[in-house]
Amino acid sequence: MTRAVLVLYVRSARARWWRKHLQTLLPGIECKLWDDTFRSEDVEYAVVWSPPNGWLAGFENLKCIVSIGAGIDHVLADSLLPQHVPVIRTTGPDLTQRMREYITLQVLAQHRQVNAVRLAQNTKQWQPVITPPAHDLTIGVMGLGKLGTAAASSLQQLGYQVIGWAGSQHHIDNVKCYTSDQKQHFLTQTDILVCLLPLTDDTRNILCGSLFSMLKPGAGLINAARGEHLVEEDLLQALDSGQIAHATLDVFRQEPLPQSHPFWVHEKITVTPHIASLIDPESGGKEIARNLLAFINGEPIEDMTDTTRGY
Ligand code: NDP
Ligand code: OXD
C-alpha cells in the first residue's frame, strides 16, 4: 500500500531542511517538496506558505491544508481553493512570545522616542527627550486573538493603560475590551494603536484616513498584522499633518518592500522586514506535525480555522 503524501510549498532556502524535519516527525507519511516527483492523486496533506493560485486545486484527494504561520489569508487568497478542505494554522508559545517581544519593543521605542534620539545622534546633537510616564499613555490593541491578547497583557504589566478591540467580548486582566460596534470609542482614547487583526474582507484597508482621524492627535501606529490593512497614501498624509507622529510597519502590500518605496526613507516610519514573529522551523515543524497527527486521529485542534469567517 502506498503511503499518503504530504506536499510542502515553502519558497525558502531551508525548504529541504523543512522536508527532512517533517519527514522525521511524521514517519508514516511521505513528505515531498512541491518540485519533487509524486503522483498528485496521492497527496492528502499540503503544508504551505503562499502557494500559487490554483495549485492546491490540483490535488483531488486533499484532506487538509496547513498554513505555515498564524495567518491564513495567503491560503484563502487562492481563487480556486477547494472550499471543502479544512485549513489549520500554525501557532504556538514561541510565536506568541516573539510577538510579545516585538510589540513591547516597538511600543517602548515610540513612547521613549528612540527615533528622535537616533536622529539627534546622527547630527551629533545632545538632545535629551522627556517622555510621559507609561501610565499616562493608552495603547489600543486591535485584534484580541492569541497574539493581541499576549501583547496587551505584556503592555499592561509594563504600566501602560491598555484597551483592546475585537469582534466579540473579551476579558483580559487590567485591559478594557471593546467590541466591533464600539470602534470609535476605542480609537478616541488611543495614543498608540497596535494592529494584530487577521486580514479579511472586513479588515482590509481598516487603517485608513478616517480611522487615523479618530485617534488622539500625534498618535503612534504599529502594524504587525498584514500590509493590506493599511491604506498607504492615507498614512503618508496623516504623518504629514502630524495626526500620526510615527508608524512602525512590519508588513507591507508588497514584500519585500520595493527599493523605490517612500516608506524606506520616511523620517517618521520604522520599517522592519516581516520579522515581528517569524515561525522558527524547529518548533514550528513540531506544531505542524502535532496538528496533523491530531487531524488524522480525529482529535480536536485548537489551530483549526473557520475559513468562512476568514481566520
Ligand atoms: P487570531 O485569529 O487568534 O485572532 C484574531 C482577532 O482579531 C480576534 O480577536 C478577532 O475577534 C479579531 N477580529 C477579526 N476580525 C475582526 C473584525 N472584523 N473586527 C474586529 N475584530 C476582529 O489571530 P492571531 O492573534 O493569531 O494573529 C493575528 C494576525 O497577526 C494573523 O492573522 C497574521 O496576519 C498576523 N501575524 C503577523 C506576524 C508577523 O510576523 N508580522 C506573525 C504572526 C501573525 P474575535 O476574538 O471576536 O474572533
Ligand atoms: C504569520 C506570519 O502569519 O508570519 O505567521 O505572518
Can you describe what's shown?
The protein has nine helices and twelve strands. It is an alpha/beta fold and 311 residues long. A seven-stranded parallel sheet has the order 8-7-6-9-10-11-12. Strands 2-1-3-4-5 form a five-stranded parallel sheet. The radius of gyration is 21 Å and the shape is elongated. Helix 5 links the parallel strand 6 and strand 7. The model has no long low-confidence stretch (mean pLDDT 97). The two termini are 36 Å apart. The protein has two domains: 104 residues, Rossmann fold (3-Layer(aba) Sandwich); 177 residues, NAD(P)-binding Rossmann-like Domain (Rossmann fold, 3-Layer(aba) Sandwich), CATH 3.40.50.720. The structure holds NADPH dihydro-nicotinamide-adenine-dinucleotide phosphate (NDP) and oxalic acid. NADPH dihydro-nicotinamide-adenine-dinucleotide phosphate binds next to helix 5.
